[in-house]
Every structure is written in C-alpha cells, then in structure tokens.
Amino acid sequence: MKYLVSVLLIFSISNANVVDDYLNSLKTEVLKNEPNFKGFDYKRGEEIFTSKHIGKKGKEISCTSCHGINLNESSKNFFTGKTIKPLSPKANPKRFTKVKNIEKWLKRNFNDVYNRVGTAKEKGDVVTYIITK
Ligand code: HEC
Predict the structure, then answer these.
(1) Which of 40, 48, 24, 46 is nearest to 125 (CA)?
(2) Relative to the CA of 103, which of 48, 60, 122, 130 has its CA 20 to 30 Å away?
(3) How many A from CA of 97 to the centre of ligand 1?
C-alpha cells in the first residue's frame, strides 16, 4: 500500500511537471507578441473547448464532439465512433505526460475543429481548462 501510494505520488508529480513545463514554454512564446500577457485563462479555454465551428471536414463540431463535456468520462470519436479515454489527467493519469504527444494531438485536433493550428495562447488556455476539469 505504501509502495502504491508513493508510486502514485511520484507519477502525479512528474505528470504535473510535464504540463507546467509545457505551459511555461507556451507562455514564453505568447510574451514575445504580447508583453503584457498575464497568464492562461480557464474561461477562454472553456470557450475554445466547447464552442462549435465548421471544421476541416465541413461539419460543425467542437472539441466536445469527440471528448464529451465530462472530461472525467470516456467519450466517442465523432467521426469513427471509437472510444476515447477520459481527457482529464485526474481520471486518466496517462494524459499530459509527453509533450510530443500533446503537441501532436493539439495540432491535429485544432485543425479538426478550427481548420487551422492553434496559437500558443489558445493552446495554453485550452490545456489550462482541461487539466482543471
Ligand atoms: C475528431 C475527434 C476529435 C476532436 C474534434 C478533438 N479531439 Fe482531441 N483527441 C482525439 C483523439 C482520437 C485523440 C488521441 C487518442 C487519445 O489520446 O485518446 C485526442 C487526443 C487529444 C489530446 C492528447 C492528450 C494527451 O496527453 O494524451 C489533447 C490535449 C486533445 N485531444 C485536445 C483536444 C482539443 C483542445 C480539441 C479541440 C480543439 C480536441 N482535442 C478535439 C480526437 C479528437
């Protein structure tokens, strides 16, 4: 039991470090264009995640179309119907553990929904939203 607790603790700490480092690097990027930038915002992130747009395939979708509205539950891919595991790192400790993976999917998924890549600010806002859910 003690072992399990420490493993979980170490895991969640390393997980948090990956997200923090990632958010810090995005913040550095935003500050280049916006010297008065205060920080990433949950509310802006919520709007990015839940609002609908005509996506890459010409259909109106949002991030929630594939990830659902409850990020602690599994959801279904809007196009393929395949199950997607919970996006919240609270429910799914594998989330936000590899920057390469986060970047790959944000690029792809912003394209799915917004038909373009996300800016550093948008990515930081939406990640801030997801990890607090
Ligand atoms: C067409 C379906 C679809 C849409 C729309 C979609 N996603 Fe995803 N997303 C996926 C799939 C599939 C994966 C990869 C499989 C997995 O990780 O479970 C993924 C993975 C991710 C990950 C990876 C997290 C990690 O570390 O494992 C993030 C972050 C993410 N999506 C955010 C978003 C955001 C933000 C939006 C809206 C801009 C969005 N997604 C819209 C299907 C979608």
Answers:
(1) 40
(2) 60
(3) 14
Residues 127 and 40: beta-carbon distance below 8 Å: yes
This prediction's pTM: 0.91
- Tens-level pLDDT at each residue, the chain (133 residues): 666 666 666 555 566 789 999 999 999 999 999 999 999 999 999 999 999 999 999 999 999 999 999 999 999 999 999 999 999 999 999 999 999 999 999 999 999 999 999 999 999 999 999 999 8
Q: Half-sphere exposure of 72 toward its Cβ, with a 13 Å CA cutoff?
A: 4
Question: How far is 36 from 46, CA to CA, in rounded Å?
Answer: 22
DSSP for residue 131: H
Distance in angstroms (rounded) separating the CA atoms of residues 60 and 73:
23
State whether residue 73 is helix, strand or coil. coil
Find the 119 Cα to ligand 1 centroid distance in Å: 16
Atom of ligand 1 at shortest distance to CA of 97?
A: 26
Query: Do 76 and 87 touch, CB atoms closer than 8 A?
Result: no
